[in-house]
Write a sequence for this structure.
């Protein structure tokens, strides 16, 4: 399969981004990656690609949208930016998937502007992986849709459930609605109307009702549905608390140890490798006609390699066909 | 000073709740606590109170609102509940403050029903303490006001700032608005209108604009303003991630150690004691005419003792006078 990668997107681009692509194609003999961005910068980074060089192409784009730029303004000022070029390749069916660690707002907005939505989908949403005591769950939407309607949230349940089943291998995933209390009458209008939709739908047996913030990491459900405003804040709060606690643990516990310090350091390293929100391999923008994986701005080689792998898995599972079928069946 | 304590509120009531009161009056010779609840259960718990017994009274209440009950229904069905009795004591000026670890919704709703608001305050809000890399910050509102208007959020900034200054001893506290990006045009209408209010106010020099979820624990500001829906979820997500990471650390790091395991266990114990969201001593409902401290449902002796101490500190600092003055001055 062929994937376009925004080689210029992310805090560390292009070096580690391109290297992530090299590693991904080394692992997957069927993968071809189109590196979108400044040819002069990308070309030398491929010098060491060796026998996978022929599965790495460059698609030159002269402009880069920075992390801070407002998408609407940036699209006008920078028509030849690497993000738009990625989306155009997908629209023209030249690639099956796109992956990028650049400006998230721009990644999403470009898909929305092109209206590259799957049949039946009202609004795509970003699904983030959340580590829990029971394995990975997904939280969506984490920022694509700040003013969702109940039917958008319901569709996130449908798409999230398919993702959890086929990518996370969770049979009959449970769906929870993030709210401020578990009682049925809790929360705002959006929550109440969304609950009603789930309860009257084919997903009613998977819907466990309201869940609270502290339930996420307990793993009470595999799919956590919320609006993009709350979801984005929750995702970043999780990252923030994780980083904070890791720092405190490093200082306090390591400070207390002597001879066994290296053992503790290795264990902490493993925890960070396994649970770090920066490393979880990218969040899919579910509901687009194609595959779009959005990576954390701080992504390096491993995160990009993972994200390209996730895109391939997504394609092989034919997730989009399943989503279209499920929505057409009134799911 | 005299404080009413809901002796029946919380997952472990009444034993550890009453014991917390005993410890608090032992520490503070000026404190008297009115234990509100079932006399038959409370009386025997005071047998060991010794020479502080005369500063512990019982106010009998026959009913208890459970953690799961809907407040509106509960008030109708249980007029003699301990939460309403606490509020009535404060309304009648028989106590200066109330403290409870019971049903948070009922604690808040009772104050709202009595309209026991400070002069100039439009809606009280709950302020939660958040541990950060720079010390404690406060997050408000965390659940009293799910549909706030911009002026409510602005008033949370005013009250939070006074709290941070006089209780947390933070000079010129910085105020941030929780949002999904730091750019000015980010977020929903509420965020934008609230930003405008802050920028045109006497607090404009303290207002640092939008902050993201991951900034909270970095301690970029001492006061974090948000609506009660987002704030409640964020607070509980923080608790959830903290508990989750502590479990993982316990398993992975402790599992890697041998001789120095006890040192690491002691260090982890210290971290939990210092940062555990369950132990931070209660969240004030700011803006009520009186003092109301809401404790975590899982509160035991130490949390209740801390909360009673916070109520006393709140009274001594004359926070309410400062809030009324600041709001009257257009703050």
């Amino acid at each position: 399969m062929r994937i376009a990668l925004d080689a210029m997107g992310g805090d560390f681009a292009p070096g580690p981004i391109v290297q992530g692509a090299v590693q991904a194609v080394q692992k997957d003999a069927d993968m071809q990656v189109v590196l979108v961005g400044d040819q002069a910068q990308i070309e030398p980074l491929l010098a060491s690609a060796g026998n996978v060089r022929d599965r790495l192409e460059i698609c030159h784009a002269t402009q880069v949208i920075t992390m801070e730029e407002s998408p609407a303004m940036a699209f006008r000022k920078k028509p030849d930016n690497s993000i738009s070029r990625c989306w155009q390749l997908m629209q023209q069916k030249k690639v099956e998937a796109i992956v990028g660690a650049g400006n998230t707002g721009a990644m999403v907005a470009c898909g929305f502007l092109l209206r590259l939505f799957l049949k039946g989908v009202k609004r795509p949403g970003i699904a983030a992986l959340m580590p829990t005591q029971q394995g990975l769950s997904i939280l969506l939407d984490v920022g694509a849709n700040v003013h969702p309607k109940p039917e958008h949230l319901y569709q996130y349940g449908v798409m999230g459930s398919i993702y959890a089943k086929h990518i996370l291998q969770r049979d009959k995933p449970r769906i929870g609605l993030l709210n401020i209390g578990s009682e049925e009458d809790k929360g705002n209008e959006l929550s109440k109307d969304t609950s009603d939709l789930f309860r009257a739908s084919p997903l009613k047996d998977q819907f466990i009702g309201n869940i609270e913030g502290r339930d996420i990491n307990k793993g009470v459900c595999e799919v956590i549905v919320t609006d993009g405003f709350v979801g984005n804040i929750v995702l970043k709060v999780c990252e923030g608390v994780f980083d904070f606690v890791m720092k405190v643990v490093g200082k306090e516990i390591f400070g207390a140890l002597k001879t066994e310090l290296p053992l503790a350091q290795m264990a902490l390293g493993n925890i960070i490798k396994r649970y770090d929100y920066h490393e979880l391999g990218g969040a899919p923008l579910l509901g687009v006609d194609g595959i779009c994986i959005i990576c954390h701005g701080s992504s390096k080689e491993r995160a990009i390699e993972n994200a390209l792998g996730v895109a391939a898995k997504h394609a092989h599972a034919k997730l989009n066909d399943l989503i279209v079928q499920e929505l057409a069946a009134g799911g």
